[in-house]
Design goal:
The chain is an alpha/beta fold. It has one domain: TIM Barrel (Alpha-Beta Barrel). It is 40% helix and 14% strand. The protein has a 7-stranded mixed sheet, with helices on one face. The longest helix has 18 residues, at 126-143. The relative contact order is 0.11.
């Protein structure tokens, strides 16, 4: 039996659908990283509802932060923007740049709930993949981001090395207070069963699923 004040699955999905493709919904499982002086007060709502920078991909990331804050959101997800990599934070981002990005978000009263940093170079080698993923984790920590969202891999030959790199980085990410999450994103992590297989393959509590009902619907015919 569930508690009466907990959202039902149907009600939760309805809320997610209302947010739209650019939104993010994160379970509020604890305090987000950051100093009390810069962070907004902790919410009593069991869900952290925010917005990604993706709708402002043609603009510099500060434009997205301004718009998201003006819309009343308290949580932001850093994704695409107008830059050399088309991302706010990536493996090409320096620690100093990531720190400044996080500072810019907090100045606007925004907590960075999620970062999508693109691919890490597991195609070169497992060692390069681990190094690249650690760099992304370091950048998330510098920006005080709660989670690093990963898009998965579509090449069957790279499937095991990709998740091996994640496995080797889970403890490191936990030490940095950064959660690693997998997004349903086509390829070999398009459906619920495929995503569950990925999570079970890594088998670490710091690697979980970032559920995207829109993508699950799109890739699996509902």
């Amino acid at each position: 039996m569930t508690r009466s004040n907990e959202p039902t699955r149907r009600a939760f999905l309805a809320r997610v659908a209302a947010i739209g493709a650019s939104g993010l919904v994160l379970p509020c499982v604890g305090a987000c990283p950051g100093s009390a002086a810069e962070e907004p007060p902790a919410t009593k709502d069991p869900w952290q509802i925010g917005c990604y920078t993706r709708p402002w991909a043609e603009y510099e990331y500060r434009v997205a932060l301004d718009s998201i804050a003006e819309a009343g959101y308290k949580y932001v997800g850093l994704m695409t923007t107008k830059s050399k990599t088309s991302l706010v934070i990536s493996t090409a981002t320096t620690a100093e740049e990531a720190q400044e990005i996080g500072h810019q978000a907090r100045q606007r009263g925004l907590t960075t709930a999620s970062v999508y940093g693109g691919d890490f170079p597991v195609r070169e080698s497992l060692e390069a993949g681990v190094a690249g993923l650690r760099w992304l984790i370091d950048n998330c920590a510098a920006a005080r981001a709660a989670t690093l969202m990963l898009g998965g891999i579509g090449d069957p030959k790279l499937y095991e090395p990709y998740y091996k790199a994640i496995t080797e980085c889970c403890d490191y990410a936990a030490e940095k207070n950064v959660g690693l999450v997998l997004k349903p994103h086509g390829g070999l992590n398009a459906t619920g069963p495929q995503c569950r297989k990925c999570v079970e393959l890594v088998g670490h509590k710091n690697f979980t699923l970032w559920y995207d009902p829109g993508n699950i619907y799109y890739y699996s015919d509902g």
